[in-house]
Design a protein that fits this description.
By secondary structure, the chain is an alpha/beta fold. The chain is built from eight helices and four strands. The protein has two domains: about 120 residues, Rossmann fold (3-Layer(aba) Sandwich); about 70 residues, no CATH class. The chain has a four-stranded parallel beta sheet, sandwiched between helices.
């Protein structure tokens, strides 16, 4: 089994490396993150991208009291504005978990890949833009250091000038990053029938 995902899906991909049993054979995290409590999430974002929309308290409460939504197309309320407002205020971790990352950081540890890398963590390919203002490039740097420390097979591809989702990077660099995905997976997942 190969698990791939980007952004929050990249977080889930990295989480699959220690929370899923049996563990996946290989992971590919695109602009993902292994930290849920760092300043990048738990302090107000300085980035313009998080200031495009703001919700008032009543609108935020409506989102919080609404039903769980697995498919964004089914969402009746503005989850994007909710996320933006949480990032503006530095309250995203507390809002999605119910725990304060400053007073109870240990509550987040079981869900943080950066705290759960072991030598048997699956081989992982990390792809991240150097100019990402939603999920900082540093998040993949942290994971790469943990993989190195624990002897986990990994590759880290930094895409120069890439914003979140690699937007704004040179198309040749983007293509080169994506071209690494299938060969990396093929090293750890045998073709069907083998």
């Amino acid at each position: 089994l190969a698990v791939l995902g980007g952004s929050a899906g990249g977080h889930l991909t990295l989480s699959a490396g220690f929370r899923v049993n049996p563990r996946p054979a290989v992971l590919v995290a695109f602009w993902g993150y292994g930290d849920l409590i760092g300043p990048w999430l738990s302090q107000p974002s300085p980035h313009e991208r998080h200031r495009s929309v703001t919700q008032d308290v009543a609108a935020m409460e409506a989102v919080e009291q609404g039903p769980p939504v697995a498919n964004a197309a089914d969402r009746q309320l503005d989850g994007g504005a909710y996320y933006q407002t949480c990032r503006q205020r530095g309250i995203w971790p507390a809002k999605v978990s119910g725990f304060d990352p400053e007073t109870a950081p240990e509550k987040f540890f079981p869900f943080m890949a950066a705290k759960n890398v072991t030598p048997d963590y699956p081989p992982t390919l990390l792809i991240h833009g150097t100019d990402d203002t939603d999920v900082p490039h540093e998040q993949s740097e942290v994971m790469a250091r943990e993989f190195e420390k624990h002897g986990v097979s990994h590759e880290f591809v930094s895409v120069k000038g890439g914003e979140h989702g690699l937007a704004g990077a040179d198309p040749k660099d983007i293509d080169a990053a994506y071209a690494k995905v299938l060969p990396f997976i093929a090293k750890f997942v045998p073709p069907p029938g083998e």
